[in-house]
Amino acid sequence: MTDDKLPKPSTPDRSFNAREAWRVFGIMSEFVDATEHLANIRPAVSVFGSARAAPGSHYYVLAEQVSRLLSDAGFAVISGGGPGVMEAANKGAFAGHSDAIGLNIELPSEQRANPYQNISLHFKHFFTRKVMFAKFATAFIILPGGFGTLDELFEALTLVQTGKTRKMPIILMHAPFWRGLIAWFRERLVAEAMIDPRDVDLLQVVDEPQGVVDAIFSYYEKRGFEPSPDEREILLNL
Hints:
Blueprint: H1 14-38, E1 44-48, H2 58-72, E2 76-79, H3 85-94, E3 100-105, E4 119-123, H4 126-135, E5 139-142, H5 147-161, E6 170-172, H6 175-190, E7 203-205, H7 209-220, H8 229-236
Parallel strand pairs: 1-2, 1-5, 2-3, 3-4, 5-6, 6-7
Helix pairs in contact: 2-3, 2-7
C-alpha cells in the first residue's frame, strides 16, 4: 500500500479525551464509596441467579430460603439488587438477622431495584460492581440464570483458580440445571487438557438450602471466616 492510500490520522477529539480522563475519577468514586459501605460487612455471601425468576417459582423460593438461613446464621447476603433471584436473595436476608445488600447496576433498560435492601449501592460500571461481589464474599452461591449469572460463575472460578482471590466455596444450586455444564467441563475442558481435573472440584452442587449453609460452615470449620494476612493482601490487589 502506498503512502497516499494510507488512512489519514484523525484529528484528536480533545473534548472526548478529557471526558475519558475524568471518567477515571468516576470509577475511583464507585470503588471508594462501595468499599466504605462494605468494609465491615463480614462474613458475607454473594448470591447470583436469574432476574427473570418469578416470585413463587422454584428458583425464587430456593434463593429466598437459603438467604434467610444464611442471614439467621450471621451472613450478610449480597445480590445484584434487581428482580428475580436477586430480589429473592435480598428478601430472605432482609427477613433474617443480617444485612441484605444490593449492588444495583444502571442499564439502558433501567433495572428495578428491589425493596429488600438494608444497604443499596448503585454502579455505572459492571467491572467495579463485580469486584465488590468478589472482594467481600466468603462464598459464592449460584442459582440458575442466564448470561449474567454464567458471567459471575466463570468470574468466580477464574479468580479462585488463578489465586486472584482467596479460595472459598462456589456452590451451584439445583443439580438438574447444572448437570450438563459440569459434564461438559469433564468431557471437553478436562479431556482436552484445557483445565486441570482438580479445577472441577472448585465447584460443589447442593440442592437443599440447609445443605448450602452446612457446606459453608464445614469449609471454614478449621480456619475461621476472617481472611489471613496473605489473603488480605490478595484481596487488596483484587
